[in-house]
Amino acid sequence: MTSDEPPGTKLYGVTVFISNLSEDVWPFISNITDEKAKQIEIEENANLADRDLFSLAGEDRIVLITPKPVSKEFIEYFLSVFGKKRIEVLVPDVHTGRICDDIIKDQKIMNALVTIANSHKKLTLVSYSTSPPFLKLIRALKEKGLNVYTPESPEEEDAWTVNFFGSKSGIRQLAQEGRAEEPDLIMPKGFICSGIDDAAKIAAKKYLKEDGVVIKTNKGHSGMGVLIFRPGDLPSTYKEAENAILLKLKADSYWEKFPIVVEELIVPSLVIGGGFPNVEFKILKNGRVEFLYFCGMRITKEGVFEGIELNDDVISDRIEAQMIDTGFYIGEKYSQTGYRGYFDLDFIVARNGKVYVNESNVRRTGGTHVFETAKELFGKDFMYDVFVLSDNVLPLKKKYSFGELLKLFKPILFSRKSKEGLVVVSENLLTQNKLAYIIFGRNKKRALETEEKMKNLLI
Q: What is the structure's pLDDT at 222?
């Protein structure tokens, strides 16, 4: 835990983790027209940084660099769930949303990183995403003569893979090129276009012809940058539909800044992984592709990611095998081009059973902390032993302090003895009246019952 000693003094074999959630999509965030919405997005990403402790559940020695302080109470709660670990939290004096830039300008934290590096002969540095500011920080540390080891990042000359494959257009291009080699690698039919005028025209025609259309900016975030038009959402004449779409696209400047994907609307089969199954992998530094887990995603009607469901029974064996095979194929392609680190594939299962690749996130994800927590608490075969569900942004009707919430949830909190219950994974998010949590149950029924009890306690 934190102390008055120089950071890193007694941490041997330490992993330094930088929570840089906003940096992953900074070009998108910086082009949100509504200034209030922009600040809310930056604030939410900063508040979710304490959740990254749970991404590091398997580590014994942690230095976490976050945009906001993490309270002693929250760290003690984390330790009560996992047992003894040594944790230090460093916070830059200035928070701009680009935490790696903030670190470079913060002499105290830069000195702490030098101390850690000198104690170990190298500095092991990982982050939520390999962003341009993260690469800039690595250069700055190397210029100080430090040996910086980044096990979850590509080398700088290969870092283009992050934005390319993590974009809607990049994964679509890979899918088109790989269809002959991997017949199961299919995406919803669509177009990549430039400019809102063309996008509105193409989308209006597609909507009227197919009774639905989806429009995506090249790299959105948390449901922002996605427009879903279902039957009845738009006027029934071409010009009126085009104008209605154009009005939506003019509302935010990011639609003009990046390529736009216009694609067919796939109606999901909600009984299969919630309609939106997902698979996550990790590419090791030596290039080996490692499968981590599959899950069902909890997605709102508007396309906003809320959380995941983890268990061997969430997805049928057939779809599971297809997803994993496709994931390994794409992982090998990523690896060959130099990418290293986490990535996932989001899928849509249509009502006819057809499985489509929807997009790829080339970074840690909103489910990584759930997987790492479950693996630490239950072992690597947890998918067969426990049902896990999560939510990252449950709205609360009133503001709770962390202490109040723990008292309120005492009857349903996770017990190391029973191996069931609720884990609260962020304190800072409570300041925005939102709750992030993981629930463990012996089966789906038990997990859902705990979730329902939790919601009843909040009324």
A: 66
**Residues 45-61 as b or e (16 or more Cβ within 10 Å = b):** bbbbbbbbbbbbbebbb
CA distances (Å), origin 362, targets 76, 150, 163, 246, 337: 32, 16, 8, 30, 13
Interatomic CA distance for residues 147 and 168, integer angstroms: 35
Query: 3-state SS string over 209-223?
Result: HHCCEEEEEEEEECC
How far lies 102's CA from each of 20, 29, 31, 38, 95, in Å? 11, 17, 20, 19, 7
Helices (H) and strands (E) in the chain, counts: 16, 17
Q: What is the per-residue pLDDT across 17-47, written as a single tens digit (0 to 9) for each?
A: 999 999 988 988 888 888 898 898 899 999 9
pLDDT at 1 > cutoff 90? no
297 beta partners: 308
Domain boundaries, the chain: 15-153, 189-260
Strand ranges for 142-265 from DSSP E: 148-149, 190-193, 213-221, 224-229, 260-263
